[in-house]
Design a protein that fits this description.
CATH topology of chain B: Cytochrome-c3 Hydrogenase, chain B
Strand order of the largest sheet of chain A: 2-3-5
Shape of chain A: elongated
Oligomer: heterodimer
CATH class of chain B: Mainly Alpha
Number of helices of chain B: 14
Number of strands of chain A: 5
Number of domains of chain A: 1
CATH topology of chain A: Alpha-Beta Plaits
Largest sheet of chain A: 3 strands, antiparallel
Strand content of chain B: 5-15%
Number of helices of chain A: 3
CATH architecture of chain A: 2-Layer Sandwich
Radius of gyration of chain B: 22 Å
Structural class of chain B: alpha+beta
Helix content of chain B: 40-55%
Order of helices and strands of chain A: HEHEEHEE
Shape of chain B: globular
Number of domains of chain B: 1
Largest interface: A-B, 17 and 17 residues
Strand content of chain A: 15-25%
């Protein structure tokens, strides 16, 4: 019983471990794996990202110069980011927002997104 | 006057797939005689996802991500066992630095898993505040994971031929300080695990698995080491474990308390292993890409937090595998679980079931 008093006092007087979300947001660690964005100015349509993607979330159409990326199939492993030899895939640190419909992202050469 | 006959009908009661203390769904049908357990029939198959079939239909490189997602808790070691099998078949030589990196990340996975289990064990006994304390300490390991790879639990840093991320100086300093903080917190709780009266009342003498039965039924991992069997797959010397100096932790009281102590001492041992691996890690490349399709078959054993994981991988020279068989440790621990439940009472069920550390997602793949 006397041994517990020290621990009880320490627990009473220390800060709670929870954050007051959404007033305080947790710090974003550099390198967190979020969604990816494709830069078609640097892409050479080699289809390496399509071959390496584990759930097949990327489809490349070289003749139409179009990339279709499905953020709902993506598992955010960033294998595409590490394997693109032109550095055309940009990783993001924010997570994907919740959405109502399962829409895919279409990136086309020459069209602004 | 009708003569009344008293028919002794035993109650059959499902410790169902949904239960507040179970981390994953498994059904145990108990037969009770008053309060004592007479018979147990396990029933699995609630999270079967046909992963072994998916491993045959997929490209062998994409399989690394799929193997990692067999289990949410012990994920790095599944990926590591698969990558090691493919490296053995194709003859790829992993660089030394990558072996040490894989050891460090495996031990981080072991730490995270044992902390999770300790929290759930105390929650099963009703000791909820200790559960919260232990999970608060687990956050230190998860923050380290996030700084290394970007995800808190699924590291995804094991690749065929080595590792895909490296540790630089700032990150290594982070590791050292986190391990020091974790060691202080873990050691301050040691008197709780060994001497606390409430925990001892519910775990000492419960779920006894004698040593000869553990050998006969094929127990693995801390379930076997808590019954006096000196067996740990890390002693085989895969990866960089042959350069690190440690011994398996064995207790011989054969009950749930001794299994808990095995896992607690393994937490302290893992912290020491990570510290020595960081000190001994050589500089150099971290990956060697392989260029051949796998042709041939091999078996591989890895020590997961719950026991021995067994992989059989067979390739046939194309980019798709012929067969990949996974035998997870909890599947081998279910017969000992059934034998250690018989003869105890209803209130002993949660501590005994959890003392085997069931990871049913692995069991059913």
């Amino acid at each position: 019983m006397p041994k517990m008093l020290g621990k009880v006092l320490r627990s009473l007087l220390s800060q709670p471990a929870t954050l007051k979300y959404p007033a305080e947001k947790p710090e974003v660690v550099k390198g967190t794996r979020g969604r990816v964005w494709f830069d078609l100015w640097r892409c050479d349509y080699c289809q390496d990202c399509e071959r390496i993607c584990p759930p097949a979330a990327i489809t490349v159409y070289p003749e139409a110069r179009k990339i279709v990326y499905d953020p709902f199939r993506c598992i955010y492993c960033h294998q595409c980011v590490q394997n693109c030899m032109q550095g055309a895939i940009k990783p993001d640190e924010t997570p994907r927002k919740a959405e109502y419909d399962k829409v895919v992202d279409v990136f086309e050469y020459g069209k602004a997104d | 006057m009708s003569d009344k006959k008293v028919i002794n009908v035993n109650t059959v009661f499902p410790f169902g797939p949904q239960h507040p203390v179970l981390p994953e769904p498994i059904q145990l049908k108990f037969t009770f005689d008053d309060e004592k357990i007479v018979d147990v029939i396990p029933n699995i198959g609630y999270v079967h996802r046909a992963i072994e079939r998916a491993l045959e239909l997929n490209n062998y490189r994409r399989n690394v991500a799929l193997c990692e997602r067999i289990c949410g808790i012990c994920n790095f070691m599944h990926a590591m066992a698969y990558c090691e099998s493919i490296e053995k078949i194709t003859g790829t030589e992993v660089p030394e630095r990558a072996k040490y990196l894989r050891v460090i990340w495996s031990e981080l996975g072991r730490l995270q898993s044992h902390y999770l289990w300790l929290g759930l064990f105390f929650d099963a006994m009703g000791f909820e505040s200790l559960y919260m304390h232990v999970w608060r300490d687990r956050e230190i390991v998860l923050s380290l994971n996030e700084r290394t790879s970007g995800h808190r639990i699924q590291l995804s840093t094991c690749a065929i031929g080595g590792a895909s991320k490296d540790l630089d100086g700032a990150l290594i300093a982070n590791y050292r300080s986190s391990m020091a903080e974790l060691k202080k917190k873990a050691e301050s709780m040691s008197s709780l695990f060994y001497k606390d009266k409430g925990i001892r009342e519910r775990t000492v003498g419960k779920g006894v698995l004698p040593k000869n039965k553990a050998v006969a039924l094929g127990a693995v991992g801390p379930t076997a080491r808590g019954s006096g069997i000196n067996q740990d797959m890390r002693m085989n010397g895969y990866e960089a474990y042959k350069h690190l100096d440690f011994k398996p932790i064995v207790f011989d009281m054969e009950d749930a308390h001794s299994r808990m102590l095995v896992r607690y001492e393994e937490i302290l041992q893992s912290i020491e292993i990570i510290n020595s691996a960081i000190n001994q890690m050589p500089a150099g490349p971290i990956i060697e890409k392989n260029k051949k399709f796998p042709m041939g078959a091999t078996i591989n054993r890895v020590e997961q937090p719950r026991g021995e994981l067994f992989y059989y991988v067979e390739g046939n020279g194309t980019d798709k595998l012929e067969r990949c068989r996974v035998r997870p440790p909890t599947l081998a621990n279910i017969p000992p679980l059934v034998s250690m439940l018989i003869g105890y009472e209803v209130a002993d069920i949660p501590p005994i079931v959890l003392s085997v550390d069931p990871c049913v997602a692995c069991t059913e793949r």
